[in-house]
Specification:
Blueprint: E1 2-8, H1 12-25, E2 31-34, H2 39-45, H3 51-59, E3 62-67, H4 83-93, E4 97-103, H5 116-119, E5 123-129, E6 141-144, E7 154-157, H6 164-179, E8 184-189, H7 195-208, E9 215-220, H8 221-230, E10 237-240, H9 242-255, E11 263-267, E12 273-277, H10 294-306, H11 311-326, E13 329-330, E14 340-341, H12 344-354
Parallel strand pairs: 1-2, 1-3, 3-12, 5-10, 8-9, 8-10, 13-14
Antiparallel strand pairs: 4-5, 4-11, 6-7, 11-12
The structure holds nicotinamide-adenine-dinucleotide.
The site of nicotinamide-adenine-dinucleotide has 22 residues, from α4.
């Protein structure tokens, strides 16, 4: 089983080192090879996603990714900015299905900005389509407005589009995932206003006929944003497009209190995947040894489950994380009175210990 390790920038190398430590402790036949990505790759090779890094990712069974980006690269031309690396990997590997679980650990209920009773036991999965929608739709650009009240003025435009097969495959992913959970899918759209999302809704409804054992409901995105803070526990699996999923998954992340706890997986049709924490490179705390490595460690667990087909090893990691939290160990972002605050490496060591 070959894993490409792409630590990236900011806290990326610190948190990925802890996940690698945990993976090594499992004593599985894992072959790991590291390559630069993002700002680190720009410094080393003049491009955020060098050819050699892309090749390594393409040849691996899975990619473990830290995070990319730093404010010091904000003045670079867009194609050379670190964030282009993650967009390029998604596109080149065809990673169309993004899984973002939002799980509220019993010990961290207090960390949420919502009342504890609203989030205690929360366990939802957002499945976001990742390679289509307005983020990739062509044409896009700037021009002189051809018509309208401001004809001739500078305008910018993007294109929202989805094809039937794109919606079909993400809908199937969502229904299959719901079968492994509580059997309910909420498809989030804006079919009342957008043609693209009327097609989305029609196709999800059609695909649902193959999954009569799964409950399906449809919700407009504005209502979904509201329901996520009003009664989040009524959701099981949420499936939605790229832009709505981008926004709703960050909202769901904060229900659980800390973005430092949330893993993610992005899969292609062959089951090959890229696994990364949901947060960014956190330049404000980089190099201080205080970043929470648990989201990355839990991403490694998702990698074992989805791409490497090692569910027992994945469950061992998840149980170890639970145990460490139960012991009262916390990094600064999830600290609370009475707990022991530890640094990044100590947290990684504690998870290794708790593997048993
Ligand atoms: P961020 O997620 O990096 O940080 C937001 C806040 O959360 C910061 O205060 C940070 O200290 C804290 N935080 C994040 N991860 C943490 C962790 N593991 N432990 C403790 N605290 C943590 O978002 P940002 O500040 O908006 O962006 C910083 C950089 O990251 C930007 O360059 C952005 O483009 C990039 N970014 C990259 C990715 C990615 O690589 N997939 C995703 C989002 C943002």
């Amino acid at each position: 089983m070959k894993i490409a390790i792409l630590p990236g920038d900011g806290i990326g190398p610190e948190i990925v080192a802890e996940a690698v430590k945990v993976l090594r402790a499992l004593a599985l036949p894992l072959e790991m090879e590291t390559a630069p990505v993002g700002g680190a790759a720009y410094e080393a090779a003049g491009h955020p996603l060098p050819e050699a890094t892309l090749r390594l990712a393409q040849q691996a069974d899975a990619v473990l990714f830290g995070a990319v980006g730093d404010w010091k690269y904000d003045t670079l031309p867009r194609p050379l900015r670190p964030e282009q690396a993650i967009l390029g990997l998604r596109k080149q590997l065809g990673l169309f299905a993004n899984f973002r679980p939002a799980l509220c650990y019993e010990q961290l209920t207090h960390a949420s900005s919502l009342k504890p009773e609203l989030v205690a036991g929360l366990d939802i999965l957002i499945i976001r389509e990742l390679t289509g929608d307005i983020y990739f739709g062509q044409p896009r650009g700037r021009r002189a407005a051809p018509d309208g009240p401001f004809a001739g003025a500078e305008e910018a435009f993007d294109t929202m589009r989805y094809s039937r097969p794109e919606v079909e495959r993400i809908a199937r992913v969502a229904f299959e995932a719901a079968r492994q959970r509580r059997g309910k899918v909420t498809s989030v759209d804006k079919a009342n206003v957008l043609e693209t999302f009327q097609l989305w809704k029609d196709v999800v409804t059609e695909v649902h006929r193959d999954y009569p054992d799964v409950e399906l409901d449809h919700m407009y995105v504005d209502n979904a944003a509201m329901q996520l803070v009003k009664a989040p526990k009524k959701f099981d699996v949420i499936v939605t497009g790229n832009m709505f999923g981008d926004i709703l998954s960050d909202e769901a992340a904060m229900l659980t209190g800390s973005i430092g706890m949330l893993p993610s997986a992005s899969l292609n049709e062959r089951g090959q995947g890229l696994y990364e924490p949901s947060h960014g490179s956190a330049p404000d705390i980089a190099g201080k040894g205080v970043a929470n490595p648990l989201a990355t460690i839990l991403s490694a667990a998702m990698m074992l489950r989805y791409s490497l087909k090692q569910p027992e090893a994945a469950a061992r990691i998840e149980a170890a994380v639970q145990r460490v939290l139960a012991q009262g160990l916390r990094t600064a972002d999830i600290a609370s009175p009475g707990c022991t605050v530890v640094g990044t490496a100590q947290m990684g060591d504690a998870v290794v210990q708790a593997l048993g």
